[in-house]
Write a structure and sequence with these properties.
heterodimer, A: Aconitase, domain 3, Aconitase, domain 3, 2 domains, five-stranded parallel beta sheet, 16 helices, 19 strands, about 15% strand, B: alpha/beta, Aconitase, domain 4, seven-stranded mixed beta sheet, globular
Chain lengths: ~475, ~200
């Protein structure tokens, strides 16, 4: 009998074209996603006189540089930003690559578009020139971010040289409490293992608390694997996965669908398969989380207080905590619920899907954004926006005083100019609370959509469970 | 790609963990093509004071470390975003080597594909080297890729591990394109098998 294998190993070996004696492996890329930050890779191709090897396996959508105020390319004010969106259009048109451009009914953030169109599927090896490509692992794919030289190589050959990472299984057993989401689970994981806890590893998330997550919760979970240092994050496909994928535009149909599901059922890690590293968390103990520092590992349950650098385990951590508290304008001992915010941002590839917007709208309904707070909702894609509008969520948000904007990456990293002012404190559903991430001097706190909405309407971090209890 | 064999240069310490690629190059500079000199964006905001002007205390701004071409940093250096321009900013400023207890995986890959050697040393070794660099600003470090050693300012020699493939590519200045070109038949054959089960 064959040795038991992990989900990761099954996908890896299925995409192995060849392996050199030194262990370097040439992997075939089943699906390659592009966004408007990838112009450099096409420049490399042109310089080398190369063209895409398998354009039918490549899909593109502009997200980083699009305006969230309007849909026309001309509405992008900064000529550099406009040029990035135009270059994506030119480069994909030149090579016959399918692009969901501005105005296309499927345009959106690339990591929202992949799953929602059915391009992301179990068992596929997927890459994209963006670190949050780990998102697609929620469908049971092996998906990871690459740099622009690697993007160029994948364009030219549909393959990639890689060394096999180690495997890590993160098991979360138990029942998640009310208002405890995929975002809270991943923040709790990163707080536990650290921002480099999974460096060099492909993560598989397992356990009853993970299985209970919806597909959208799993997408949020896998999205932030990179924030734990992991190359990839995956959840084994199951009935939740198949129900999500069935009938999507690029999902297999008819007999092909049946055959695909039969294949996908073989993917989950075999009983007894060994992982290089095992981590376990108690799902019942996870609370709604908020970050306080400049690394996603600096996360606390909402009832927590800002830690005191004097209690740090070593001098390095003490100095780091002092720098972060200084940047964040926070004093040790301050309760999270006593910290006032200036902005709320609900969006990004982490948390801009329909369930995220429903959760935020349920909090916003019948309430008003607190005086002095600027609150934005940026849907992750055109389909998300259409669905939300069909459900009237945009009216709920507008009535509460939130701005309802057009799909794109927006304030997650501000490449399109959507940034906070220096010193502004942002309750953000995005993925990185780095120094300057949302604009020079901006202070980012990461949290779930419902928690961001609760912060928006109360003007400070608030336990959404208490708010909804009234 | 520029080959890397031996490198001897002034090293600058950045004694902080989790220095992310947003710090190395802020996102608003990512729309610049590769032809633009990216040295001007290196630690653009980190090296400036909030009220404007250069921060004289930022290590790269200190006169003794301005000639630095090796960076020594805390754990998880260059984590976060996959932006290859983080490597370009370092490379264009003359850096050819970064030493840390650990790196963001994507940065590590990007570095070896652009002639910038990432060296992983144990945290104790990095701490010791940092202390020497702080004590004697302007001190030099020697990196020998064929021998896989780093020689600290006090002469202590530290061995390091490197993926043999990355080492080979760096030593020869090879990029992946040339290598893969020899395998087109294998890729095409693989594709014929793979495509049957993965219709688009």
């Amino acid at each position: 009998m064959d040795a038991p294998r992990t989900l990761f190993e099954k996908i890896w070996s299925r995409h192995r074209v060849l392996e050199r004696e030194d262990g370097q492996t040439l992997l075939y890329v089943g699906r390659h996603l592009l966004h408007d930050g990838g112009a450099t890779a096409f420049d490399v191709l042109r310089r080398r006189g190369l063209k895409p090897w398998a354009p039918e396996r490549i899909f593109a959508t502009p997200d980083h540089y699009v305006s969230t105020a309007g849909r026309r390319v001309e509405e992008i004010e900064d000529p550099r930003h406009r040029e990035m969106v135009e270059k994506l259009a030119r480069n994909t048109a030149e090579h016959g690559i399918r692009r969901f451009g501005l105005g296309d009914p499927n345009q959106g953030i690339v990591h929202v578009v992949g799953p929602e169109t059915g391009l992301s599927q179990p068992g596929l090896l997927m890459v994209c020139g963006d670190s949050h490509t780990s998102t697609h692992g929620a469908l049971g794919a092996l998906a990871f971010g690459i740099g622009s030289t690697e993007v160029a190589h994948v364009l030219a050959t549909q393959t990639l040289w890689q060394r096999k990472p180690r495997t890590m299984r993160i098991t979360v057993e138990g029942r998640l409490g009310p208002q405890v989401t995929g975002k809270d689970v991943i923040l709790a994981i990163i707080a536990r293992i650290g921002a480099a806890g999974a460096t060099g590893h492909a993560i598989e998330y397992a356990g009853s608390a993970i299985r209970s997550l919806s597909m959208e919760g799993r997408l949020t979970l896998c999205n932030m694997s990179i924030e734990a240092g992991g190359r990839a994050g995956m959840v084994a496909p199951d009935e939740t996965t198949y129900a999500y994928l069935e009938g999507r535009p690029y999902s297999p149909r008819g007999a092909d669908w049946e055959a695909a599901v039969t294949r996908w059922r073989e993917l989950p890690s075999d009983a007894g398969a060994a992982f290089d590293t095992e981590v376990t968390l108690d799902g019942d103990a996870i609370q709604p989380m908020v970050t306080w520092g400049n690394s996603p590992e600096d996360a606390l349950p909402i009832d927590g207080a800002i830690p005191d650098p004097e209690t740090a385990p070593d001098a390095e951590r003490r100095a780091q905590m002092r720098r972060m508290l200084d940047y964040m304008g926070l004093a040790p001992g301050t309760r999270l619920t006593d910290i006032a915010i200036d902005r709320a941002f609900i969006g990004s590839c982490t948390n801009s899907r329909i369930e995220d917007l429903r959760a935020a709208a349920a909090v916003a309904a019948g309430r008003k954004v607190a005086p002095g707070v600027t609150a934005w909702v940026v849907p992750g894609s055109e389909p998300v926006k259409r669905q939300a509008e069909a459900e009237g969520l945009h009216e709920v948000f507008r009535a509460a005083g939130f701005a309802w904007r057009e799909p794109g990456c927006s304030m997650c990293l501000g490449t399109n100019g959507d940034i906070a002012a220096p010193g502004e404190r942002v309750a953000s559903t995005s993925n990185r609370n780095f120094v300057g991430r949302q604009g020079p001097g901006a202070r980012t706190h990461l949290l779930s959509p419902a928690m961001a909405a609760a912060a928006a309407v109360t003007g400070r971090f608030t336990d959404v469970r208490r708010l909804l209890e009234g | 790609m520029e080959a890397f064999r031996q490198f001897d240069a002034v090293a600058v310490p950045l004694p902080q963990p989790n220095i992310d690629t947003d710090r190395i190059i802020p996102a608003r500079f990512l729309s610049r093509p590769r032809e633009v000199d990216h040295a001007q964006f290196l630690f653009h905001d980190a090296r400036r004071l909030p009220e404007g002007g250069q921060d004289p205390d930022f290590p790269l701004n200190r006169p003794a470390w301005q000639p630095a071409r090796i960076i020594v940093a805390g754990r998880n250096f260059a984590c976060g975003s996959s932006r290859e321009s983080a490597v370009w900013a370092l490379f264009d400023a003359g850096f050819r080597c970064a030493i840390a207890p650990s790196f963001g995986d994507i940065f590590r890959n990007n570095g070896t594909k652009n002639g910038l050697l990432p060296v992983v040393l144990p945290a104790e070794a990095v701490d010791a080297i940092m202390a020497m660099l702080e004590a004697g600003p302007g001190a030099r470090i020697a990196v020998d890729l064929p021998a896989q050693t780093v020689t600290a300012p006090d002469g202590t020699v530290h061995g390091f591990e490197i993926d043999p493939f990355a080492k080979h590519c760096l030593l020869e200045g090879l990029d992946d394109f040339g290598l893969t070109a020899g395998y087109e038949e294998e890729i095409a054959a693989f594709e014929r098998r793979y495509g049957r089960e993965n219709r688009l």
